[in-house]
Specification:
By secondary structure, this protein is mostly helical. It is built from 23 helices and no strands. The protein has a domain of 286 residues.
Amino acid sequence: MKNNNKRVKWKAFVLSMVAAFLPSLALATDGQPLDLTNASVGFFAIGVFVFAYALVMVEEFTHLRKSKPVIIAAGLIWGMIALTYQGHPGMELLPEHAFRQNLLEYAELMLFLLVAMTYVNSMEDHRVFDALRVRLVGSGMGFRALFWITGILAFFISPVADNLTTALLMCAVVLAVGGDNSRFVTLACINIVIAANAGGAFSPFGDITTLMVWQKGIVDFWGFFALFIPSAVNFLVPASIMHFAIPDEKPKTVTSEIKLKRGARRIIFLFLLTIVTAVSFHNFLHMPPVLGMLTGLGYLQFFGYFLKKTELKAIQARADDEENISGMPFDVFSPIARAEWDTLLFFYGVVASVGGLGFLGYLGMASELMYTEWGATTANITVGVMSAIVDNIPVMFAVLTMNPDMSTGQWLLVTLTAGVGGSLLSIGSAAGVALMGQARGKYTFFGHLKWMPVIALGYVSSIATHFWINSSMF
């Protein structure tokens, strides 16, 4: 009996502390969440998220993985929300239901990205990207030709592979052929970042932002390709201007040869088949694209089993080929293990944290300000500028959570700006941050900043092109 009395007193004490911590709570009706935007818990949540994201932005200097602060922030935000609702009988389960919905959205996107990363890692294991790099390095082209070919390849590879992998591959080519020419390396890296970000903007799975919009069902699969020309303009305008600053010289030719590992071409085919499966599940069966992607992972698993069972025969048939003898048989779980887990967990922290802020009422407030007072066009262009400073994932997730009433043209506009806006600064995208590390001392924040007016011209031009050629969608 005494223990029960102690528990009752302890619960009363906790709830009284919560009440003291939350001096102003707007009452909810009809089972709707409380408006906590003016309460202490709301200010606490904003402070935690801002501090966590500040740590993300200085990752390059602190070497603290970006997933760590946002995961802690998500736990603190939802923990305080749940504690707050304990003081409102009959509403205790609202935070749980809201978080479960957030978790479901994250799970669909995480599993989709995990399959895509696994295929990219498998192709890397089988030297597909090494073969492409060696072929470009040994081509004998001049700096200006290499500037264009690396940019064009980045533009067309990033819609299939992610912009980070694409940028790293093209930067490896640039460093191999022009490592001593700092001017060429700087301009080529800027061009690669712009091209990779622009290429991802017109593909449903070219970037996490486009993937989120597609999986939400706001724009159908083929609808994104209306952004192809605006995305190309975003890449071509600054590239055409920077072209004249590239040294008109030829680097020393490097000759070497890379042989693809057994099964490489079939893995490329299976990746394309997986994409077709995901699109077909979504368009014809009205199922989430992630179901098709996971089915495609099964393709790769069975092919890995086939390679493992036939490895001995392949070695005996090609005993004179050292390239095929060396190395362990392909194991699909190895590329899965090497997926960008920091990025995937960062994505969880962002989705959960922004979802918590939305549950508190802040996204509704932001939606009212941006999409009602400013108007959709101004708001969507601003989203792109914000994505140059803050990662485009939380920005786009916030917009999707707000779910403003917009035309297809406006949804495509925010997809475009969130995708290409990160090119304005070197820290605005994963591609830019990665290349600053890969080409350290040659591609820098200030080197990129020097060309920001030219990049901004491409940004504005791409928006104008979208309004011009897609005017019927507004």
